[in-house]
Amino acid sequence: MVPGKAGNPVIDSDSDGDLSDEVGFVICQDGNTVVFTGSGITTACAAPEGPTAAIVSVANGDSATNATATPMITVYITGQGGDSAEDNDDAFVGYYSSAVNTFRVSAWSTVQLEANASLISVVETGRNTGIFEGEFLVADTEGSNDGTPVKTTAASTTDDGANDATSDASCGTSGITAAASATSAEDGRFDRSGGTYVDCEMIVGQFDVAGADPTAGGSVAITVGTIPAGSNLADTDGDGILYDEIYFFTQGTQGIAAGNVGPSVAGNLEGTAITCGGTLAKCSDGSGGAVIITVTLAAGMVDNTSDKGGYGVPVVNNVVDYEKVDTTLGGGVTAADLKTGRPGSDSASTLGGILGASTAAEIV
Fold first, then answer.
1. Higher model confidence: residue 154 or residue 71?
2. How would you list the strands of the sheet with 118-124, edge to edge?
3. For the chain: N or C, fewer Cβ within 10 A?
4. Is 42 helix (H, G, I), strand (E, B) or coil?
């Protein structure tokens, strides 16, 4: 009996109803490693042992919905081959699993017309279930009902002005129409917030516009991180434009002027063009690559005086990579919450916040 990876069920990638043909198996001498792509060995261990085997059965249990549950794989050794397995040898299994997937849909009603629809995230109820759920309130007038103003689409914490390290950031929410104040409602108003954008994570980092002194109204190209293959630059506001999605921060040492801080829209470092891996198309076709945004400056920059800062790049991949819904209603989002939480189901939570990625390597 060989355990799989906790929270990662074996999936039927060929849809033949049989999981036993989905698992690869090999025994290696101690200290060796092996790389699988699905059930196939991509990189074999340097010192394999001889036994051959057949997969008898696969029991996923509740590993599709429980992050601590482990699929159990029953293996039958069919022959010893050249070298017999010995004490301290290592057995490896490999298989395809699946993530908790998500995508966005337009939602409206007879009160909130289609022309002013919300873009809301729906989340798969477990790994590979194919069932997606989400919640949203049409007449919420957010802030009037629960005392908490809506959270705008923006990165959260930034450099603290001392150590020049850009902190983790969140994608916030989508499609916000200005709401009433936190203590009063307005007649005929509703909150068009799409709620938490469950698919979205921020890649954050720092930039330095070196060797130039562009003035206000001038144009400059800034490299703002790398989108990993399989991910796309998020169009959080659904307007079809991607160069308005980058968020710029300042820092304590030689930081950009306050007039250049904020989202890449008019009045800040206003985006005019963007490429990923050299082309605009690669920002949204899964190719990824280095992101370069061309901006028009609201305030000038001086080399080694006011030309450094941080950035937040929102990315999506149709996977819930990090918990974003307070499923435990514990007063905030932690690793104890479930990735399968429905946006809106935590409306009784006293705090917002999501867990997010700060580097491309953390986004899977």
1. 71
2. 102-107, 118-124, 132-133
3. N
4. strand
